[in-house]
Design goal:
Layout (H helix, E strand, L loop, with lengths): L25 H30 L11 H31 L5 H25 L3
Helix pairs in contact: 1-2, 1-3, 2-3
């Protein structure tokens, strides 16, 4: 004769192991942080030099110089560089948090900011007749 009760249900298995997180590359982390700090310092220096260049724009002959053009060139370059720098920093930090390669984004951000500020300087130079 059988048992009157079917017995205990089988135990569920152990939960699956979470996927192993890849090891964080020390070189990637170091390079990314150094380049991000350089990008932030570049922004601070660019703001200082941009405002400084506008502050000493006392004598600007109207025939060869446009104060409005100089202000527009400086402020546009600073604003675009700030937006690109902020976006690049966010992307780099997200890549670091995901433990993915991040240094190319940091270096690309620094390079783009340099290019933007260079062209802003060229536009400023053209506006003041230099």
């Amino acid at each position: 004769m059988g048992h009157p009760y079917p017995g205990y249900p089988p135990y569920p298995g152990y939960p699956p192991q979470p996927p192993a997180t890849p090891p964080r590359s020390t070189a990637d982390l170091t390079i990314s942080i150094i380049v991000l700090v350089c990008t932030a310092l570049l922004g601070v220096v660019a703001v200082f030099l941009g405002i400084f260049s506008l502050a000493f724009l006392d004598y600007c002959p109207p025939a060869t110089c446009s104060v409005e053009g100089a202000v527009t060139a400086v402020m546009t370059a600073l604003a675009v560089a700030a937006l690109v720098g902020l976006a690049g920093m966010i992307v780099t930090i997200v890549q670091l948090a995901r433990r993915k390669t991040a240094w190319p984004f940091a270096v690309g951000t620094l390079g783009l900011c340099l290019v933007i500020l260079f062209f802003g300087g060229m536009a400023y130079s053209m506006a003041v007749g230099g």
